[in-house]
Specification:
Length: about 450
């Protein structure tokens, strides 16, 4: 029980410092190293069996950091950096704006403000396939769909809530979170994303859209929210209309080069994203009238996006892995599992506990990545010990982390959209709270129905 108490205290401390706006990667890394050192002090093995000890508990802790940098940074981290670099490149050459404009056009024919709200939400969710950053997508929607929605009669708080919430449910099979979840579930990316995550996501989006319709209509009437009229100017784009295809190339590649669609031709996600960048660069080269210098200058945005991803995501992933190993090596997780087993908790209870922990951490930190990266490390070992399907635990956690971020008043997307809309972040959270709760319930029920508990 001492091990569990230490793990609980350190975990609470991690949450406290992250809420106080300390950098999550640094906090998780420091906490993980501390737990590994305490593990050695208590006489437990610091490193997992597959890593050779250095002979000293202090250097063993640093050895695990090195291992995570090699394993995460060079493997999964490279996937995430490539995807983020591609997304940055798409934004730089204007392809993402073209997608926004083409999705926005159909909305102008809808007359009912609340039907428009539902349509705008669904379109915004589809746009999350092209724009992976929740904050980036929210800001993009505020600059494009927000004026259109308010011009059509949607209240300002309701319109801001739509812009803040499309990334609450993951649709993209090439999202960094999905890549990690697929690896931890032991499934190929296309099987995990399409056969397990996508059906649950679609059900949750439908339910959340319906909840947003009734909840915002109720709040508008209750709060007497004014229906504004704003002139909608044309969305300015500096790229041809067919550029709307480019952001979706990695998604197409995942299905096209899986070894089954084209027998004998299998490409991993690394090669698919590199191919997507190459095709996009060649298309941009032709459009820019074979100006090689300009094309190469534009590609710098891709490299900068990769660097930003290493700083903001990959190091967070490494730190989360060290923290998770600290919790496991000190015995906190084994103690927690023993308590759950003693209380008669089965696979369903474990899934609900992990989901609740992920949501709570996402609300407290305002991050969808940090809680998921931290807790997903635990899911495979817990699933193995209880003999259940890892995907049964991971899918609700995957969605819960993003849902929790959407109702966090300190999350980047809520702060950014509320600021642009000149309303309080807590007003946005009030608007997103009921749809998110309905979405979370749908995710849990969908997982129970569509994903087998036992492999």
């Amino acid at each position: 029980m001492l091990e569990l108490l230490i793990g609980l205290v350190v975990t609470i401390a991690v949450g406290y410092f992250i809420v106080k706006e300390y950098k999550p990667a640094g906090v998780l890394l420091a906490a993980g190293i501390l737990l590994l050192i305490l593990t050695g002090v208590m006489g437990h093995a610091v490193l997992p069996a597959k890593i050779s000890s250095t002979g000293n508990m202090l250097t063993d802790a640093l050895e695990y950091v090195k291992y995570m940098l090699q394993y995460r940074g060079g493997g999964l981290g490279m996937q995430i950096m490539l995807l983020c670099g591609f997304a940055a490149y798409m934004t730089h050459i204007g392809a993402n704006n073209v997608v926004v404009k083409q999705f926005s056009k159909p909305l102008s024919v809808i007359k009912s403000p609340y039907v428009l709200l539902v349509a705008a939400y669904i379109v915004a969710c589809l746009m999350s396939l092209a724009v992976s950053s929740a904050t980036g997508l929210g800001v993009l929607l505020m600059a494009t769909l927000f004026p259109m929605m308010t011009a059509m009669g949607i209240s300002r708080p309701a319109a801001v809530a739509v812009c803040a919430s499309p990334a609450a449910i993951i649709l993209s099979p090439t999202s960094g979170d999905v890549v990690i979840a697929a690896e931890k579930s032991g499934l190929s990316l296309d099987v995990f994303a399409v056969q397990t995550v996508l059906p649950v996501s679609i059900c949750a989006i439908i339910v959340m859209a319906a909840a947003a319709f009734f909840w915002n209509k109720y709040l508008d009437k209750k709060d007497n929210s004014p229906m504004e009229r704003v002139d909608v100017s044309e969305i300015e784009v500096n790229a041809p209309g067919f550029y709307s295809v480019l952001p979706f190339l990695p998604i197409v590649g995942v299905f096209l080069f899986n070894g089954r669609t084209i027998p004998g031709l299998t490409l991993d996600i690394y090669t698919i994203v590199v191919l997507s960048i190459f095709i996009s660069a060649m298309v941009d080269y032709v459009v820019k009238k074979f100006d090689g210098q300009k094309t190469l200058e534009d590609l710098e945005s891709c490299y900068e996006g990769m660097a930003d991803a290493f700083k903001g995501v990959v190091m967070l992933l490494v730190a989360a892995g060290v923290f998770a190993q600290g919790l496991m090596s000190i015995g906190a997780i084994d103690n927690l599992l023993h308590l759950a087993e003693s209380a008669g908790a089965g696979g369903m209870a474990l899934m609900l506990i992990l989901t609740a922990l992920t949501v709570a951490a996402a609300i407290a930190t305002g991050s969808g990545n940090a809680p998921f990266y931290a807790f997903v490390e635990l899911a495979p070992s817990l699933a193995a010990k209880m003999g259940i399907n890892p995907a049964f635990l991971i899918i609700p956690m995957l969605q819960a982390s993003n849902l929790g971020r959407t109702i966090s008043p300190v999350s980047g997307v809520v702060v950014a959209t509320s600021g642009m809309g000149n309303i309080s972040p807590f007003e946005v959270v009030k608007r997103t709270s009921v749809p998110v709760l309905c979405g979370l319930i749908t995710v849990i029920l969908g997982t129970v129905v569509l994903v087998p508990m036992y492999a």
